[in-house]
Amino acid sequence: MPEVAIFNPASLSRPLGQYSQIARVRAREFVFIAGQVAVDIAGNIVGADDFDAQCTQVFANIKAGLDSVGAGWGDVVQFTSYLVDAQDVAKFMEYRARSFPGMFPPGAYPPNTLLIVDRLVQELLRLEVQTVAAL
User: How many domains does the chain divide into?
Assistant: First the structure.
């Protein structure tokens, strides 16, 4: 089992959303999950005009990736999130505020870097989330 300590040191500001400033990890193995987008198993875009539906599909894809290596949400030590529209930041924060307590029950949310980019691999995709887990 990896040793994971996710926390917010007093020397840094409180996070602006559902993430923590630090993840200190001792693990024998790391899992790197490529950025996941709102595409179902058949390759169809989910929620072309619905940001929340895209969030749901992205995190379902991440969960499937974690499951494929015998990992779970508690093994996630970092996210990198990409949005194509700064107007979606608030929606993304709302989705995480709603969903993360169920995914990370102790409230130790993994560090997350959020970037606004010009576009993703397909124009209808509005977010992508890359994940690192420790086993």
Answer: 1
